[in-house]
Design a protein that fits this description.
- By secondary structure, this protein is mainly α.
- It has a domain of 81 residues.
- The chain is 55% helix and 0% strand.
- Helix 1 packs antiparallel against helix 2, helix 1 runs parallel beside helix 3 and helix 2 packs antiparallel against helix 3.
- It is flat, with a radius of gyration of 32 Å.
Length: 142
Amino acid sequence: MAYGQDPYGQQPGGYGQQPGGYGQPSGAGGYGGQPPYSGGGGYGGSGQPGGPSGEVSVGKLVACFLLFWPMAIFVLIKNNEGKNAALQGNAAGAQEAFANANRLAKINIIIGSCWYGLICLCTILYIIFVVILAGSAATSSY
């Protein structure tokens, strides 16, 4: 066997090449001659990968559940109503449901932020009150 010859009888540099007759014909893309996937879509053909335009984002839903979960349930329900309307082809109903869901999400985030701010303020005032009481108890004498 000479140097440079393949012991299995294959030609060097033939990697990735298919024998004639296999693979896709040049002009047809996909199965059965269908054109390749263009990437458009979502619900109702909006062209956005995340679904229909106006849909409440996942981050906003997570923030709603973390800040004030009772109202976040209504946001999720309205968002699902919008998805169902979009799947049924009712674009006007979907936009209205998404607008309601986004409005509820904003209100939810505001209420939850105010609630946590109030909790932090009360905690700080409580700590200050305890420190003042502890300081006055240590300096008082009978």
